[in-house]
Design brief:
Layout lengths: L10 H11 L5 E6 L2 E4 L3 H6 L9 E5 L3 H18 L3
Antiparallel strand pairs: 1-2, 1-3
């Protein structure tokens, strides 16, 4: 997915992403360039900034991986639309 939010993934949306990811039992990871971040860890997400225009890949592994992927993709799509409405 491409991050279209004009502020990227800063503190507020990163915290909301952690909350979404923690609703799932699967491991939820986001890959941006050469960095892999644990979506259940705010520190992990903030350690490697995700900027507007960056391409990210969401990877989910575990019992509810399909639902987890749908939840995180939906969250990122809503985040992208926030600045465009």
């Amino acid at each position: 997915m491409k991050i279209k939010n004009e502020n990227g993934l800063h503190l507020r949306p990163a915290g909301m992403l952690v909350s979404e990811a923690n609703r799932c039992s699967s491991h939820v990871m986001m890959v941006c360039g050469e960095h892999t971040m644990n979506c259940k860890s705010l520190m992990s997400l903030l350690a490697f900034p995700v900027c507007p225009g960056d391409e990210v890949t969401v990877e989910c592994y575990g019992e509810d991986e399909e639902q987890a992927l749908a939840r995180i993709v939906s969250f990122l799509e809503r985040l992208n639309q926030e600045d465009q409405s």
